[in-house]
Amino acid sequence: MISDARTADGNAIAGPLSQIFAFDVTRIIVTCGACGSEAPLGALRLYGDTMGMVLRCVRCGEVNLRALQFDGMISLDVRGATRMTFRPKIDRL
Amino acid sequence: MPEAALFHGWQLATLAAIRDETPSVRTLAFSLPQWSGHVAGQHIDLRLTTDDGYQAERSYSIASPGGCIPLIEITVERIADGEVSPFLTEELSLGDTIELRGPVGGYFTWTADNPAPLMLIAGGSGIVPLMSMLRTRARSADRRPARLLYSSRNFDEIIYRGELEGLVATPDGFSVAHTLTRGAPANWNGETRRVDAEMLAKYAFPAREAPHNFICGPTSFVETVADRLVALGHQESAIKTERFGPTGETR
């Protein structure tokens, strides 16, 4: 049921989280709680579907972030990330 | 459709044009009540609601050039057992409406004032956001060198084939290299294997030219190509990736 050809990484979470963050979240630098590697949230590997999105570290596979959407609520579980660095302003690569 | 279509940024988009790109890939152009413009590489989300209230959201790359344009295009590959793509490519008709949110995303984006050489590497329908970048570039006055390395399964599945030929025919520093991984026509003069280190060395800008590299395709494709670019000396910060396809796919 989730085999459609479409975004399969952290970029897919930009829309849902645009409801609660005032800036684009895909550029947040996420530090993995397991291996310590840093990656833009948009580059993390996506598992799951709209109701429950799981973003995993590209390096080690640790779950860095879970986002649940239900009953008009959004619930974020970020225990798998030790740090998130925000640069709200859009810049180039 | 739900009453609160504009809540949380959702708006009702109307399907204004349909264009078949390949036997299994279709471009859908939507007109929107409000659109403030987008940057090449950004996404939109589509939301489908069934009669019994079940909702499915999907994120799709925008295919149209960046800027403020009247119609927003996405290009959708029909996956036979997909939940949403068969509806989008077979059932949604001209004049139908669908909920749309966006544009979103600021990570996998490119603007025409970026002075670095632009290296685009696509696998299959991963070409879509890269095509937005090429269309943006083609509309800009000052064009930096750009190259596309595009891997398709076979000749008939090359998305935007004719348009890419047109872009190459314009002498403005853009070139395309195609590779076909599951068979090629008899007169084919492109590559015929998966993207490997040798192919990247041949077609990608060398690391010393400090290109910005955008890779989009299935997860395994993206991660393999990214690793090979790093091995060729490219900075990880100069490589941006976007994965297409089933979620949870591993290499």
Write up this protein.
The complex is a heterodimer of chains A (93) and B (251). Chain A is 4% helix and 38% strand. With 93 residues, chain A is mainly β. Chain A has one domain. The longest helix of chain A is centred in the first third of the chain and has 4 residues. Chain B has 2 domains: 98 residues, Beta Barrel (Elongation Factor Tu (Ef-tu), domain 3), CATH 2.40.30; 127 residues, Nucleotide-binding domain of ferredoxin-NADP reductase (FNR) module (Rossmann fold), CATH 3.40.50.80. In chain B, 20% of the residues lie in helices and 32% in strands. In chain B, a hairpin with a 2-residue loop joins β1 and β2. With 251 residues, chain B is an alpha/beta fold. Chains A and B meet through α1 and β3 of A and β3, β4, β6 and β11 of B.
Record the SSE blueprint.
The complex is a heterodimer of chains A (93) and B (251).
Chain A: H1 14-17, E1 29-32, E2 38-40, E3 45-49, E4 52-56, E5 63-70, E6 73-77, E7 81-85
Antiparallel strand pairs in A: 1-2, 1-7, 3-4, 4-5, 5-6
Chain B: E1 11-22, E2 25-31, E3 43-49, E4 55-61, E5 71-77, H1 85-91, E6 97-104, E7 118-123, H2 127-139, E8 146-152, H3 161-169, E9 174-180, H4 197-203, E10 212-218, H5 219-231, E11 239-244
Parallel strand pairs in B: 7-8, 7-10, 8-9, 10-11
Antiparallel strand pairs in B: 1-2, 1-6, 2-5, 3-4, 3-6
